[in-house]
Amino acid sequence: MSDIIIVSPRATLARLFALAKGLDFWQSIGTTLGRVMLGFVLALCAGVLISALCAKLRAFHALISPAINVLNAVPIASFTLLALMAFHPSNLSVFIAFVTVLPIIFYNTLKGIQSTEPKLLEMATLFKVPLHKKIYFIYFKTVRPYVASAASSAIGFAWKSGVAAELIGIVRGTIGANLHTARIFLNTADLFAWTITIILLSYLTERVFRFVFR
C-alpha cells in the first residue's frame, strides 16, 4: 500500500523521533500548548464564575443561558472563520479553546451548585457561618467533583478545537501549521507523528489537571 495513503507504525515512530530532534518541533509544541492551556484555564475560571452568578441571580441566568447555548451549538469551523476577522491569528487557538470549553464547564458547575444539600445551607445560615467558610466547606466540596469531571472531558475538546483553529487559520509555528504542511505535501508520516503528539499532550495535560483537582 502506498505510503501516501498510510504508513506503518514503525515508520510513524521513526518520523516522530526524527522530528523530536529538531528545535522547531518543541517550539511548535510550546506555542500550541501555551495557547490551548490559556484558553482552557480562562474558560474554566469564567465557567465557574458565570455558573455561580446564574445560581444566585435568576435574571442573569435567563440572560446568559441563550448565549451559552449558542456557543455550544455553533460549529468550530464557523467560529474559527468569524474569529479570523476579529482576532490576530496568534490569538485564534486561545479564543476557540475558550468558547469550546466554556459551555462544558458552565453546565457541569451549575449542576453541581444546584445539587448542594439545602439542609447544609440552612444550617450554615442558622449558625451564621461566614461566607468564605460556607463557600469552601459546602459549595467547594460539593462542586469540585463536577468541575473535575468537566475539566477532564473538556481538555480533550480544547486540544481538538485549538489545533483545528490553527490548521484552518494556518498559524505559523504551531502544531496546526505543521499538520497543514503535512497535508499539502501529502506527508502521511508527519501527519501521523503530529497526531500522536497531540494525543500524548492531551493525555498528559489531563493527568496534570486531575492531579491538581485531587
In short:
The chain is mostly helical and 214 residues long. Helices cover 84% and strands 0% of the residues. The model has no long low-confidence stretch (mean pLDDT 86).
Account of the protein in words:
Helix content is 84%, strand content 0%. It has 214 residues and is mainly alpha-helical. The mean pLDDT is 86.
Task: Name the features.
214 residues; elongated; 9 helices; mainly alpha
How many individual β-strands? 0
Radius of gyration: 21 Å
Share of helix, binned: over 70%
Arithmetic mean pLDDT: 86
Low-confidence stretches: none
- Please give the alpha-carbon distance between the first and last residues: 47 Å
Number of helices: 9
SSE run: HHHHHHHHH
Shape: elongated
The major sheet is characterized as: none
Instruction: Determine the strand fraction and express it as a percent band.
Output: under 5%
Write the layout of secondary structure elements.
Elements: H1 9-20, H2 23-56, H3 58-73, H4 76-86, H5 92-114, H6 118-126, H7 131-169, H8 175-184, H9 188-213
